[in-house]
């Protein structure tokens, strides 16, 4: 098994037994919400709907909807080619479950990302250079390569912030990690 796959397996196991998971999650929500409100962000938030033991961003979504911030989540368009796009949050609450159990908007419009939009990127692990480990589909790498002018933030549990993620030439580094201690700049 290659290094990346081994690390994926290890991080999936680790994610199941995180210490103070709920406390960390709550702290991360607070930091993200303050960041979005303090910056008076007017663009879109491109978030994700948690699956398995992923960090759940529900309170952040609630804040976006209450504050009138425009919120979108991904929908996989082509599993083989690793293509996803973002779709507006459905005000009618209608989602479909995709083949790996992730909820995706059913009927809403696709969004064309604009400069400065904020992407909250799910990950299994991230390092201080901003290299991230996902499930291996290359969905975010392809999406971010097409849209280099977005602000990227990985919300992560402390144990997911690791010393080194093996990086490939196509890996798109992430700009910030949001940990329970706050937002930290990566890629330095
Ligand atoms: N919440 C969330 N949404 C997301 C992503 C994500 O990482 N998290 N994605 C980020 O890319 C895209 C979907 N990509 C995914 C790719 C593989 C698996 C996954 O669980 N694969 C299983 C095999 C499951 C199966 O085939 O039945 C595995 O790897 O074991 C999940 C999401 C778009 N939406
Ligand atoms: N911009 C790209 N163009 C073509 N292929 C790409 C691109 N980015 C990634 N890939 C392909 O996607 C595959 C998976 O990449 P990687 O292992 O980095 O996924 P990941 O970042 O863990 O997953 P995800 O982004 O879905 O969460 C690689 O085999 C790679 O060849």
UniProtKB/TrEMBL annotation:
User: Mind telling me which InterPro entries this protein's record contains?
Assistant: FTHF_cligase (IPR002698), FTHF_cligase-like_sf (IPR024185), NagB/RpiA_transferase-like (IPR037171)
Class of enzymatic activity (EC top level): ligase
Residues that hold ATP according to the record: 4-8, 132-140
User: Which Enzyme Commission number(s) are on file for it?
Assistant: 6.3.3.2
* One of the record's GO molecular function terms: ATP binding
Q: Which residues form the signal peptide?
A: none
Task: Identify the residues that bind substrate.
Answer: 49, 54
Q: Which Gene3D superfamilies match?
A: NagB/RpiA/CoA transferase-like (3.40.50.10420)
Q: What Pfam families does the annotation carry? A: 5-FTHF_cyc-lig
Q: Which GO terms describe its biological process?
A: folic acid-containing compound biosynthetic process; tetrahydrofolate interconversion
The record's keywords, sorted A to Z, are: ATP-binding, Ligase, Magnesium, Metal-binding, Nucleotide-binding
The catalysed reaction is: (6S)-5-formyl-5,6,7,8-tetrahydrofolate + ATP = (6R)-5,10-methenyltetrahydrofolate + ADP + phosphate
**Co-factor(s):** Mg(2+)
The family note in this entry says: Belongs to the 5-formyltetrahydrofolate cyclo-ligase family.
Its recorded name reads 5-formyltetrahydrofolate cyclo-ligase
What organism is the protein native to? Pseudobacteriovorax antillogorgiicola
